[in-house]
Amino acid sequence: LRKVLELAPGDIRARGNLGICMIQLGFYKQAVDEFKKVLSSDAKNFTALYNLGLALSAQNEPGLAASYFQQAIALGESTHEQLLPMALIGLANCYREQNQYASALRLVQRAKNLAPRSHYAYLAEAQIFEKTKQPGKAIEAVKKAIELNPQDQNCKLALGRILERGTAFNAGNAKSGGSGSIAAKAAKNPILQ
User: Fold this and answer.
1) Contact, 97 vs 63, CB < 8 A?
2) Is-contact 50 69, C-beta < 8 A?
3) Tell me: the pLDDT tens digits for 16-72?
4) pTM to 2 decimals?
5) Residue 77, Cβ neighbours under 10 Å: how many?
6) Fewer CB in 10 Å around end: N or C, the chain?
C-alpha cells in the first residue's frame, strides 16, 4: 500500500486501507495519521471517522475518540449509513471507559434497535454490566451475543472472563462484604473496511 501511495498520494481508499493495516498491526499512531489524511481530503468519510475513533480508543484516548465517533454518528444519521450502529457502539465504549454508564447503555440500546442481530451491541452491553458489577446481566448479554454469532471467539472469551470475575466478585463479597472488582478489559471493536 505504501508503494501505491507513493505513486498516488491522493488515493484515499489506499490510505484508508493502510490505516486499517496499521490498526491491525498495533501501530495506532500511524493509523491515526493515515485516517486524518483521509479526512483532510474527504471530511465526510464515515469509515475514516469511525476507524480514527477506533485507533484513538486503542491509544487509550476515549475523550478524543468520542469526538470522532460523534462526528461519524452525525454523518451516519444524515446519510442513513448502514454501519451507524458500529459508531454508536464505539461511542458507548468511550463512555464506558469514562464511567458514563447510563449514557453508554442508551447508545447500546440505540444500536440494538437499529441492528437487533448485532452481537457487537450485546458484547458492548455485557462490558458495561461487567464494569458496573452486574455479572448476571453481563452473562445474559454475552449469551445473546453467542446466540447471534456462535463463531466469534470474543464472545466466548468474554463469557469466560465474566464467569471468572463473577466468581471472584462473589468470593470477595462473601469474605469481606466489599464490592469486589470485575472491571472489564475493553474488547476490540471491529475495524470497518
Assistant:
1) no
2) yes
3) 999 999 999 999 999 999 999 999 999 999 999 999 999 999 999 999 999 999 999
4) 0.83
5) 12
6) C
- Amino acid letter for position 60: N
CA–CA separation, 121 and 51 (whole Å): 17
DSSP letter (8 states) at residue 180: -
User: Which residue, chain included where needed, has cell 472472563?
Assistant: 161
Residues 142, 75: Cα–Cα separation, whole Å: 30
Residue carrying C-alpha cell 480508543:
57
Q: How distant, in Å, are the alpha carbons of 82, 102, 174, 181 from that of 107? A: 16, 9, 34, 24
CA atoms of 75 and 85, how far apart (whole Å): 12
- Per DSSP, the three-state class of 89 is helix
Nearest to 184 by CA among 103, 67, 101, 84: 101
Question: Is 87 in a helix, a strand, or coil?
Answer: helix
CA atoms within 13 A on the CB side of 89: 29
Separation between Cα atoms, residue 57 and residue 91, nearest integer Å: 10
